[in-house]
Structures are given as C-alpha cells and as structure tokens.
Amino acid sequence: MLAAACRIFALLVPVVASILWAFAVLAAEPTPTKFSPAQLPAQSSPSPLPVTPLEAAYSARAGEPLRQFGYGLFAPAGDATAGIGAAPGAIQGNYVLNTGDALLVTLRGQKSYSKRFTIDRNGQLVVDDLRPLTAAGLTLDTLRQELAALVTATWPGTEAFASLAEVRRIGVLVTGAVHRPGRQEISAFATVLDALSAAGGVERSGSLRTVRLMRAGGSVTVDLYALQIAGAAGNADVPLHDGDRLFIPPLGATVAVAGPVKRPGIYELLPSGNPLSAMELRDLAGGSLRPGRGRFLRFGIGPAGEETAEEITDADARRFGDGDLLMFAPQREDRRGEVRLEGHVLRPGPRAWTKETTLEGLLSRADLLPGPYLPFAALESTTPATAERSLRPVDLSAVLKGRDRRRLAEGDTLFVLGASDIDFLTSEPVLDLLRGERQPPQDACPGLVALARILAAEPDGPLATGPQARAAATLTGARTPCPPVFTTVPDLLPLALGHSVLRLTGVPRPGFYPIAGGLEAGTETAGARETIVESDAPHYELIGHVRRPGTRRLVAGTTLRKALADGKALKRDVYPLLGIVERYDRRTLIRAYLPFSPQEVAAGRADRGLADGDRIHLFAADDIRSLVKSGPPGTEAAADSESEPPMLAALLDPAIVAVVGERTVQVRGAVRDPGGYPLADRTPLASLVAAAGGLSADADPAAAELTEANGMRSGVDLARDATRPIAPGDALRINPRPQALEARAVSIEGAVRRPGRYDIGRGETLSSLIARAGGLMDDAYPAGAIVTRESERRREKEQFQRQARELERSLALEVEKGEPVKAENVALARQLAAQLRGAEPLGRVVVEADPAVLRTRRDLDPLLEPDDRILIPKRPLTVAVSGEVLHPTAAQFVSGKTAEDYLDEAGGTTRDADTGRSFLILPDGRARPLALSSWNHRVDVIPPGSILVVPRDPHPFDGLDATKAIGNILSQLAITAASVSVITR
C-alpha cells in the first residue's frame, strides 16, 4: 500500500514542476532588451499587397489583372522569422556543436537535476559539479558519450541525458531590394530562403533570378524560379555561414502571359537576355487550362514606345523579350454535337446529337418528373438565316404519342414545364404587369423583366390588349416564387402567356394555361380560337391539403360534409381544427372568410351549405405550425422570428393569414408539441390537446390551467373536462408533475463497497449517497475525499480567464505609460496568460466526507448536484514535496514531522524559491500557508496525503503592476495540477 500511495502522489511532481520549470527556462534567456508597442502582435490580418506600377501597366495592356510571379514565396512581414531554422527536437545526432549552442542536461540517480547549459566562447560546456568538456567541434552523439562517461566516473549509478535546447545563432548581412535590409540573426541551420524571409522577403522591385550569395572564396548566384517552378532547390538550400552576405539586385527584364493559362502573370527573364518562344512562355505559365490547339498573339513595344500586335504562327520561334505580352487563347471554345433537355425532367442537361435525332427520340415518359405539363413545351433553336436563337411552342403530348417527329438541329434545347411553372403564369407579379403596371418589382426574375419589356414596347400589342390583359383584372393570383426556368430562359414567360387560354373550371386553380396547338392571341385569326374556357354552371373549388384539389360542379343541396366526402377527401395530415370557406357575394361585392372545423364536419357534428363560387381552403398541419410560429406579417412574433417566412404565408391571401392569426389558441406546458393552434370556433378541450400531439409523459392531467380571452383564469381537469369548449384567443397550460429525481446522476468511486453511478433525488446529501454505496472500506481516507462539480469548474474557468485578461491589461498599461519593460518579462507574462486560458480546472469542492462526523453535524452534510463526481481515496502514507526544491519527492508520513523536515528530505529549497509564499495543499483540497518565514502563519499538523509546494520567486516580473498577483496565479495553477494528479490516478 505504501508503494501505491507513492505512485499516486508522484504523479503530482512532474505536473507542478513542469509549470514552474517553464518559468525557470524562460527566465534564463539572453541579455534583456527594451520592449516597445511595435512588438505587440498585430490585431488584424494583413491587407492585400498593393499593385505595383509594373503590374498596373501589364494589367492595362492585357485587360485582366496580372501579378508578379514568385513573391508569395516569403512569409508576411509580421511572420518573417517564424519557424526559421530547425527545431531542437528535429536535430540528428551527427549535428556538430559550436559556440552558442545550448544543451539541456538531465541527471538521474545519485545526482538528480535538469538544467540548461550553453557552450561558451572557449568552446567548452561547463556542467555543475563536473570538469569542463570541450564541446565545440564534437557531434551531439559524441558529446553524449563523453558526458555519460564523465558523470558515471563522478557519481556511480547516475545516468546522464543531453539534448539540444537551442541552436546557435549566426549573423548574415542581407542588402538590396528586401523589406528589412541589414544584419539578420538566424539559426545555424538557416538557408538562403530563411535569410530572405528573416529580412521580410524580396521586394517586387527586386530580382528573384539573380540573388547573389557572397562569402570568403567567391560568390554564387541563386535562382529562386527553379525552386518554385521545377521544385529544384539548387543553391537556395545551401546552409549559410556566419558572416555571409546576400545581395538582391533590381528586377531584370520581364514578360507577361495572359489568357486561359493555369498561372497567368508577369515573369522575370534570365539575365542572359535570350528571348523565349510562345511555347516556352505558355509552359512557364503552367500550360493552358484546356487541351487543344491555341492562338498566340504578341504585343510588343516598339523603339518609339508604340505597342504593336503580331500573330505568332511559329510557336517555337524565340520572339518574346523584355516588355512583351503574350495573349493566349484556344482556337475554339464552343461545344459540338449536342442537343439539350432542360426543365421538368429527371436528368436535365446535354444529349448526343446525330443527324437522325428527332423530338420523339430525345424525350420519353421515363425522362419526365411527376406532374409534367403536356399541352405546352418550348424548343429553342438557331435560325439559319439570322443565326439568332428563337423559341417555338411544342405540343409535348403529341411528341410522346409519336405524332411530332420533327428533326432536331445541333444545339437545339427542349424546355419541359411542370405544374409549378404553369401556376406562375397566374401569379400576382404577372397579373400586376398585365393589369397595366409596367415596372416589375426590384427583385423580379428575368422572366418578369422580359414580360415588362414586351408590354412597354408594344402597348397596343396582343399581350397588353388581348384576353389575357382583360382576364387579369378579375383574377386573384397566388404569391408563388419565380420558377428557375423563367430565370434561365426569360423569353419563355411571354411565349407561354401568348399561347395561353383562360380556364376557370375543371382545373386545380383558375388561370392561364398555355396550349401549343393554337394560334397566339392578337393575330388576325385569334378569334377562331377559344381563349376563355368557362362553364356557366355553379361550381365550388377545393384548395390545399385535399386528395384531389380543383373545381367541382355545385348541385342543389351540396354542403361542406358532402364536398369533403365525410372526410375521405382530406389527406391524412390535414390540420383538423380549422378550414376556411372563402365566399364572394356578387351582389354586395363583399368577400367573406367563414371558418369551420374539418374534424367536426367529418364527424357529422357540424355542416354548412355551399354557394356558387365558394373556395374551400384546407391546410397541412406542418404548414399551420410554421405559420403560427412565425406569426402573421406585422405581428410581434413575425418581427422576432429569425427564420424566413414560411412558404404558406407567401402563397396565401394575406386576409386568410390574418384569419389564422386571429383565431389562435396558445398551448403551453407538458404537451408533445406546444405552440399556437388556430380554431374555427369553440372546440372541445380534448381535440385541442390531441392536435398538440397529446400529453407528454410527465404531464399532470388534473393540474391544467385555462386563461380565457377576457382574462378569467380557472383550473381544469383534463379527464373530467375533456368536452369543455375552448374559444379562439384563450390560452391553455398543462402543468407537469413534480419531479422526484434529478435529471442526471452522480458517480462515486474509490474506497466504497459499491462504486458506480447513482440517480439522486432532490435534497440528496453526501452521507445518504455513501450509505447507498455500501459505506466506506476499512482503508478509506474520507479526509482526502474529492468532490468535483460542473458549476464550480465553470466558475474557476471564468476566474482564470479574468486573471489572464487582467495580466494582459496590466502589461498594455505599462507599455502605454512608456515604462521600460523587459522583453523577456513580456514573453513570460504572455505565456502565463496562455497557461491560464488553457488550464482546465476540475471544480473541486471542499467538503466533509467522514460519515461519523456527518451523523452528528447535519449542517456539514453537503447537498449533491447532478453530474457531481465523488472519489474516496485509500489512506496514503506519504507527503509530497514539489516546486523549487532540489529533489521533488514523496516523503514517508511520520506523525509530528514539520514542514522543514519534509523540505530537508527533498534536499532543501533552490535559490529561486519564494519561501514566503510556500503553502500546503491538504488532502481535502484546502490550501494553507507554511511557516517558512518569520511573518507567516504556522501550520502545526501535516496530515498524510498533503502536498507541500514551494513556488518560484516571481522576480522576473519586477516593474509590472501585476507582480503582486503572479505568486497567487502560480499557486492556483499548482493547486489545479495537484487536483489533476489525484483525480486521474
């Protein structure tokens, strides 16, 4: 058991030590420098690079934007030095050490520590308590071997490990056309590309093809194009030496490539000045976007500055030099050998064309979507005489029956219409234009724009003065959205209207229906065709969620019940509580909206006689729910809705939408689908609850509450008052039963007899949970019980976030005041803020968990919350010592030992320790200060399972106003780490 306890608390040592060691490593950085506001990270993303005069000149000549190639190779100026050089973890054992390299030396055994040492100017590595090692010129593997031999000889049984903590820096002078010329401090692994990135990259006025690397013994030329085009690094990956110089000369001769190529742009020529061919330039730009032969056009600058154009017939002739522009274009970009089938079909798109292709061969019934409109389609073809595209009507039923076998020409397109396309011919936007409104709405589709243009251009034409315009004055249109086919082919809308007849009966909706077999209205023989199809017999119309919508003949004695066929004409998901009869009185010119209950009519408990011209509106249940949730236009619900208005509101007459809103009853509480439910009239309570999906499992039928429209409120028993009528405007609330159990469970683990998850009731306490879990084991340690809670975790997380913000705010204030702040202090503060934001507290709650104490002190028995986690550990036999001590350890617990005794067993404190802020973490999670200084409070008893923490002195933060908070922050992180160590064992 002692060994197990040691392993448990040993987990704490590396967690706390790693937090404190991070500050020790950062504090050992080189000589401090002053910090300025310019070193703060940028708060906004970099803006796009401005256009250079060279790019503007070429772009104007080409008629398209062209940018200089290759300059995106370098990181933005704010990130130029990010990632330069190899990371220490990636360095191989054959790396040759030299002055300035830093190594992390770790000893384990008789002597234990982990420290960082730097190879000095004499090339020696001086490790504490060891003789100096000559490290300069040795490989990393050789140094490890010599260090291991030296440590073994000095301390038998001690292992030595060495890794490269930081690569030495070298100085390279970068001059010429770079953003930040001057001496650049870079890694010893850096290449030419790294040095240029450190200098901010090459300016676009500088050359990428003649970068010169100069060092003792000569110079070499680096071509960065080879790296970007062919992936050949060449001299670009040559390792640099200390004292090397890089010079970037001005930009040389340039050419540009424009057109459908993969990489259009401006390219620098080789310094040799040899001209290039059109093929070489096209390949330099990545090749053309599509295969096939192309045309090359050269735009050159003459001696006097004039620009000349030249067709290049020999693509291999070297004709392109400084200032030339190549315009590339494929010889042909059209498509051959196709006809198209579009619109209301399963697979719209191109079809293969042969000289024998006919309309009959292009289309079959298997190609059509459900509900095609067969009397009319449109064929778009090219007129040979004028080469213009034109539309002609097609009788689709004749094509399907084999009576229309006309041949198709290459490029023809057949457009098939559906029922929704035909409905749009009688929509309100179309009717408004036919009634005389010549300006379409601002968001009108191209089809409406084309119709408005024809009506305005031909005010005496067939559409503006014909039967369609006269009929529009008496029609009521739907508010349907514009179908895509009239957006793709705008002229199809006027064509369909011009071939339409007005049908008032025998169709789902009175309106315009195009017929391909007749003549256009307005022609000299138009009178020979029937343009209005209407019966004088009385009729009524079924609209909406019925099996067979449309007009019906009205015979004597027809009622709502007969029209709905005793409910058989209704669809299964029809809304049962409200339908509307729209009635127009031709004598008084008044339109009335008469509500009725489809459920009551189908059951035979209600009925109404019908009149000539009645329109019976039935709704789907889902449509009514969406309409009521969004609210009628102009209401508060509609204003608060974040979603688009439902499609039903766009299709219905606003008056009908208003009737639905006026007759709504709100149902709240324990029903499956709470919300608003419109009623026709006084409706039984049971019917309303059924429409709301019925009662939920937690409903209390005897505790319902009814608030009437006049403000009176009364209790309702759903079982006793099922037939009580509910009127429009009332509100019904179904109360749930009181919950006996919490919605979630808690878990108890560790030294209990039956660990696991337990459902808890309201008011459940820790003592009752321990009893349900069988009580504590004999070796349980209730003094170290750990209770974690989600609400407390969130509070601690917010506290850490707030402390991080305060730390950053204090730093910013110091900078704004102009106070001198060391750069390494700024880095330390930022890292601390990042650690605070990334810390994940457990939300530990300090509680009393000893059942014997809880039996006598009920006031100490904590109430449980859902998702609480309780861990009862076994009795430990150690006290952990961590932080700024020479050897963090888990010392054996002995009654009466003081904090100084435990610190002595850990080798004592280091020189960086802040003994005045030392503290003790007790087994139950509380923290108390230790008496390691004369002024501090004394802890008399150190129980087993405690953790003694000696934090680091926050002296690196001298000069910051936030210094006083650093010690507290480190303490909180250490407490969090300790909790993690214990809870995850």
Provide an overview of this structure.
It is found in: Cell outer membrane. Belongs to the BexD/CtrA/VexA family. Residues 890-954 form the Capsule biosynthesis GfcC-like C-terminal domain. Pfam families: Caps_syn_GfcC_C (PF06251), Poly_export (PF02563), SLBB (PF10531), SLBB_2 (PF22461). Keywords: Cell outer membrane, Coiled coil, Ion transport, Lipoprotein, Membrane, Palmitate, Polysaccharide transport, Porin, Signal, Sugar transport, Transmembrane, Transmembrane beta strand, Transport. The protein is an alpha+beta fold and 985 residues long. Among the domains are: 2-15 and 876-983, Outer membrane lipoprotein wza fold like, CATH 3.10.560.10; 88-166, wza like fold (2-Layer Sandwich), CATH 3.30.1950.10; 273-330, no CATH class; 338-418, Outer membrane lipoprotein wza fold like, CATH 3.10.560. It is built from 29 helices and 47 strands. Strands 7-6-10-8-9 form a five-stranded mixed sheet, with helices on one face. Strands 12-11-17-14-15 form a five-stranded mixed sheet, sandwiched between helices. It has a five-stranded mixed sheet with strand order 19-18-22-20-21. A hairpin with a 5-residue loop joins strand 43 (878-883) and strand 44 (889-892). Helix 2 (12-27) packs antiparallel against helix 29 (963-983), helix 11 (428-434) runs parallel beside helix 12 (446-457) and helix 25 (790-816) packs antiparallel against helix 26 (823-838). It is flat. The model is unreliable at 1-47, 77-89, 518-534, 631-648, 933-937 and 980-985 (pLDDT under 50).
